[in-house]
Design a protein that fits this description.
The protein has 7 helices and no strands. It is mainly α. The chain has one domain.
Length: 153
Amino acid sequence: MALRVTPLPIRQYLAYRIALPLVAGTLTTLTGYPLVGITPLPLATLVPIVIVAGLWAPLLALILATAAPNKVAGFAVMKALNSVNLLPIAAFFLPVPIQFAAGVFPTYWPMRALWSAAAGEASAVFVGAGAVVGILALAVAAAAFERRLARRG
């Protein structure tokens, strides 16, 4: 109801709400990653990986806004999303062809790209796949959010 009285059309408001966590997540990761110093990577390699990983922040916000009608349900949704987010990490321990099954999760691809870059291997294919999966997931989540808003009248 509150969104209907804002001066921005819903699509512009949604774009703003998606862009803000993406930019914030990207900047904080670019700042924090070199400070941790686990695997130093050149910025030219790190920036695309971080941008693709940053797609998770607005996706998470859209899923939460769509699936959780109240705070209690929001906690349940967050717990489920955190559990699902562990699956791509577990994929690291599987052989490479089987690992790609975790590719349905948007968080797998930036992690896979990081693993490859850290090993000195090419990571651009994984960054590209992550961008496609992440953008598709964002489009689906944004459409679901807009449908939910339309149903509420």
